[in-house]
Write a structure and sequence with these properties.
Blueprint (H helix, E strand, L loop, with lengths): L4 H4 L4 E5 L3 H4 L1 H12 L3 E5 L5 H5 L2 E3 L6 H14 L5 H7 E2 L1 H7 L5 H8 L3 H13 L3 E5 L1 H4 L4 H15 L8 E4 L6 H6 L6 E2 L3 E2 L3 H11 L11 H10 L4 E5 L3 H4 L3 H10 L2 E6 L11 E4 L8 E4 L4 E5 L12 H11 L9 H11 L8 H4 L4 E2 L23 E2 L18 E6 L16 H4 L4 E4 L1 H6 L7 E6 L2 E9 L7 E5 L12 E4 L6 E2 L3 E7 L2
Parallel strand pairs: 1-2, 1-5, 2-3, 4-15, 5-6, 9-10, 10-11, 16-20, 17-19
Antiparallel strand pairs: 7-8, 12-13, 13-14, 16-23, 17-20, 18-19, 18-23, 21-22
């Protein structure tokens, strides 16, 4: 996030696109509700009529996978109606002329043919966003989990640059991260092409710095993404895998292929707090400690680094992740002689400029937002004040491309996936709690018109199939989904929805297209 969670409550206009905030980020949604109570406007863009959509002044229930056409059309309106922030564009950006030319064809009428929306609703959304004194855009994986996910994000950035709704309090672009420390994991280099702090592995000076710090010779070649690793496992090029805190058997697309790839490995290690569906395939399972059994830090969605203190001793043979990794490293001949997590944070500060001023000692006094480059720096709650890290903000022309799969006679429905309030991710934790009593099974949401055609009522069981596999699941008839669209979560192993989803990936970020795939639905007698 460019700004803080608290600022959401004080903004004047919120565009929530591709985010079911009230269910997937319920605490952040309280800030949205507070903003609405204070008179803020809210437009929600989502193919489903979610709870947050019901709170909105306007719900744009567009065709799944058409976000980019809508975002470009909003930019078209803002420019055509002379609503853009000329001073900001002239002083703080570059590439405006090329961008203006690129969105010229995206009139609301043109975008309406792609999105299924009314041209006047597109215009109204653009006007409200551009004319608000303060405005914020919230988005999550409904934007990123497409073959054009990176371009979707760039289109959102274009709107912020066009209007100057960035670099100020109560303005900004807010990607709401999906897990409690996913931001921290990315910050620490859990990406195949970056070292900690988003320092690129193919830059010789960066490679040399980390090589010197760790006492090893490092490759300049970026690694593989999860999807690429599984493909290489299937072919035998990757023969061993070490999976920490991840359950790809349920969470990754084309799950049948995932299982096949893992079974092709010569050696699989899984490190987790429970015996997950993935761990059941492992040759070795390493029991990890939960958050309550270890000390360290979490970096949340607003870049806030917070100290986590151990509350109880690890149960059984469980150990904190860093202790397990360090012990393996020592047995492999590495210098992994850390005494505690504070020493690891000290090393992070030495090699990661954005974390340079962060230590456990400082965090004892309170959390800090990175970038925090020095020990006397107060942290940076708001990014891009005065200037961007690259100097000028860059407009990036992007074009709409349709989803990888379109409905046809054999697979006439579009399946989109997401989460539900009561459960989390693959249910590894939440399904072992009382939450299981609240929601104990998956129900496929289907529109009443489609249900009538298939002679379905609530609770009927169907087989839903894609080009990759099929599962059986009960249905819930609801107008929350449009005609031709069905929805399910991926929390339940008994209805492993990711057996159906499409592994087609964004060529830039390599994110799979979870949000759109073609399926057929058949009633089971």
């Amino acid at each position: 996030m460019t700004n803080t969670i608290e600022e959401i409550a004080g903004t004047d206009f919120i565009l929530a696109i591709g985010t079911n905030t009230t269910e997937t980020h319920p605490i952040i949604s309280l800030k949205v509700r507070k903003a609405l109570k204070e008179g803020a406007g809210l437009v929600v863009v989502d193919p489903r009529r979610t709870e947050i959509a019901e709170l909105a002044d306007l719900h744009l229930q567009h065709q799944a996978g058409s976000d980019l056409a809508l975002l470009n059309a909003m930019a078209h309106v803002i420019i055509a109606e002379d609503l853009y922030n000329k001073h900001f564009v002239e002083e703080r950006t570059e590439g405006f002329a090329e961008f203006k030319e690129a969105v010229k064809e995206y009139s609301p009428e043109y975008a309406a043919k792609i999105t299924g929306l009314k041209p006047e609703d597109i215009r109204e959304t653009a006007r409200q966003y551009a004319q608000a004194e303060n405005a914020m855009i919230l988005y999550t994986m409904g934007i990123t989990q497409h073959i054009c996910g990176t371009d979707n994000v760039l289109a959102i950035a274009n709107l912020a640059l066009l209007t100057g709704h960035v670099g100020r309090a109560y303005n900004g672009v807010c990607p709401l991260r999906g897990q409690n420390n996913v931001q921290g994991a990315c910050d620490m280099g859990a990406l195949p092409n970056y070292y900690p702090g988003y320092q690129k592995v193919d830059q010789p000076e960066i490679q040399a710095k980390f090589g010197a710090a760790w006492g090893v010779k490092l490759s300049a070649e970026p690694g593989l993404t999860v999807g690429e690793m599984l493909e290489e496992a299937q072919t035998g090029k990757v023969r061993g895998m070490y999976i920490i805190g991840e359950n790809p058997v349920l969470s990754d697309p084309d799950a049948n292929h995932v299982v096949s790839a893992l079974e092709h490995l010569e050696f699989l290690v899984v490190q987790d707090i429970f015996l997950t569906e993935t761990a059941e395939l492992a040759h070795v399972v390493l029991p990890a400690a939960s958050f309550a059994e270890k000390s360290g830090t979490f970096s949340n969605t607003e870049r806030r680094v917070q100290l986590v203190r151990q509350a109880i001793e690890p149960i059984g043979e469980a150990k904190p992740d860093w202790q397990i990794i360090a012990e393996i490293g020592r047995r492999m001949g590495g210098d992994f002689n850390y005494r505690n997590s504070a020493e690891i944070m000290d090393e992070i500060a030495k090699v990661t400029p954005s974390y340079g001023g962060i230590s456990h000692k400082r965090l004892e006094e309170g959390s800090l937002h990175w970038p925090c480059p020095t020990a006397d720096h107060p942290g940076t709650p708001i990014l891009h004040q005065g200037k961007f890290s690259r100097g000028l903000g860059k407009f990036t022309p992007v074009v709409h491309i349709p989803p990888s799969e379109q409905p046809d006679k054999e697979y006439p429905f579009i399946l989109t996936t997401g989460r539900r309030l009561q459960h989390y991710h693959t249910g590894t934790m939440t399904r072992r709690t009382g939450l299981e009593e609240l929601v104990s099974e998956e129900l496929l949401e289907i529109n009443p018109k489609d249900a009538r055609k298939l002679e379905l009522i609530d609770g009927d069981k169907v087989k839903i199939s894609s080009r990759r596999g099929g599962i059986e699941v009960k249905v819930k008839v609801t107008d929350r989904v449009q005609e031709g669209l069905v929805f399910a979560s991926f929390h339940f192993a008994e209805a492993a929805i990711n057996k159906l989803t499409n592994p087609a990936r964004d060529p830039k970020a390599k994110i799979p297209e979870y949000k759109v795939c073609a399926v057929k639905v058949e009633k089971i007698a």
